[in-house]
Write a structure and sequence with these properties.
Helix content is 38%, strand content 15%. By secondary structure, it is α/β, with parallel strands linked by helices.
Length: 183
């Protein structure tokens, strides 16, 4: 089964288009209950650049990136915000939207390496759920910022801070990781 978590309305449209073409099994498209912003980067790279159909793509990049922030669904906007905050501190990063691991696994090794270059060893997956499946993409020394316990029910904005997923808290965890002091 291919599981797709779109980041915004544009990724959702592309997910439906690609799901209709996927013939290796069923596809589950998981949508957020939160009001997600439409991300201009998704339109450019994910739709026009064909990234959504490939399962993962570079959403934002800076020359000399020290780390890759990887996210899916509602966490993609959060990853972009953390990316901007890190740039303000002169820490260059790349942001990868990974709406569907299964679609990305089918891509050539060459394409996968354009998304995850071998020379960028610091990789951080951001997942406001059980962080299953990320090990394959972050590598042995990567960091997963996720939940290893049952969540709480409340409006999303209320929970983000309580669960440790504010942009500031994520940035602080990334900074510790980049300094070799990850939790």
């Amino acid at each position: 089964m291919a599981v797709v978590r779109p980041a915004d309305a544009n990724e959702t449209v592309e997910a439906y288009r690609n799901a209709m073409k996927y013939s290796d099994g069923p596809t589950a498209i998981i949508l957020s209950r939160q009001k997600l912003p439409v991300l201009k980067e998704v339109l450019e790279h994910g739709v026009e650049g064909g990234g959504v159909a490939r399962g993962a793509y570079v959403l934002a990049d800076v020359k000399g990136a020290e780390a890759v922030l990887i996210a899916t669904g509602s966490e993609v906007g959060l990853a972009l915000e953390v990316h901007r905050m890190l740039l303000e501190r002169n820490i260059p990063t790349r942001v990868v939207s990974m709406p569907c691991m299964e679609w990305f696994e089918r891509e050539s090794r060459q394409y996968q390496e354009t998304v995850f270059p071998q020379d960028i060893h610091k990789r951080i997956a951001i997942e406001m759920s059980v962080p299953r499946g990320w090990d394959q993409w972050i590598g042995r020394d990567g960091l997963i910022i996720g939940l290893n316990r049952f969540g709480t029910s409340a409006p999303g904005e209320e929970l983000i801070g309580k669960m440790g997923f504010s942009p500031q808290e994520i940035m602080n965890k990334v900074l510790l990781y980049l300094r070799g002091q990850a939790e």
